[in-house]
Amino acid sequence: MDRIDRILQDFQHVNRDALIPILQAVQNEIGHLNSEAIEKIGDHLHLPASKVYGLATFYNQFAFQARGKYHIRVCDGSTCHIDHSPHLLRQFHKLLGIGDGETTRDGMFSIEVVACLGACGQSPVISINDDFYHSIKSGMINDILDDIRMKNP
Ligand code: FES
What we know:
Elements lengths: L2 H7 L9 H12 L4 H11 L3 H9 L12 E6 L2 H5 L2 H12 L12 E6 L11 E3 L2 E3 L4 H14 L2
Parallel strand pairs: 1-2
Antiparallel strand pairs: 1-3, 3-4
Bound molecules: FE2/S2 (inorganic) cluster.
């Protein structure tokens, strides 16, 4: 029995109302929702995999690819949004060539948009793994990425 099966065992005798908690539990365990996870969850809830995938894509908390070695969270809560977080996000998209919820081909970076990182007084805020970056300006992003690349030649 694998990790997904073990999680599904905790959700016995449930209906489709349990879909979101199951998706969250599986993502917490394996880091993202791959096609195997989507199919197993669909079988468990007697839902077609296409339906499970369609519902999961509605919520931006779910990732469908493995996260990068460096997982970037860009806060787009209201304070950060006012302080131009969409511009920062576009900058990441452009520099990394990936969109939200995606991972670079080399597995180095992934991007997630989050609601609030809890540091609104220092907006806009991003985090990369466990490191927080405050009062970010778009001109700083290239340097941040270059620093990481230099640590990973
Ligand atoms: S809104 Fe961005 S840290 Fe709170």
